[in-house]
Write a structure and sequence with these properties.
By secondary structure, this protein is of the alpha+beta class. Helix content is 40%, strand content 21%. The two termini are 29 Å apart.
Amino acid sequence: MRVYVPLTLAGLAEAHTAGELGPGPLTAYGVTPSLREWYVSDDIEELEYAALSRAAAGSLRLIAGDPGAARRRVVVAVDVPDREVSADPDPALDARSLGELRITSAVPLRLAAAVHADSDEALDDVTAAADALGAADHGDEDARFTVDGAEDHELLWYGVQEIPAIVGRDGSGA
């Protein structure tokens, strides 16, 4: 199953050094029944994009929770055996949990298909979104607009072999 693991830039650097994402359990996002129902599409590429977007929001939450984190959303796409993944069967939980999965154990980085990360052009909007996330969660419409500004930026695609360049470009990935 293709899943999307949200990280910070420092988390990506740690995974690269360790050779794995982990330890488990890990939060990831994928095409779950609740995501299918919410997105109302049978197009697997659209559904995977929706899961990637959910993971990008998860990465923003990690950034917001760590004032020292580089303000760049990072998501690693990995292919894991179905038996290693579980989803909460209740789709009526918090809307932020749509597509959310648990990976039971560490995932070797060799299973990664790609890395997705923000471009330099997104940094100001991601910084503002991380700062506004708490207020947005409490219903502040202006803050929600700010968070949506980060979501307007598409994550760039990188090959796994490019991880050293991704974590090295901010000087804060290690």
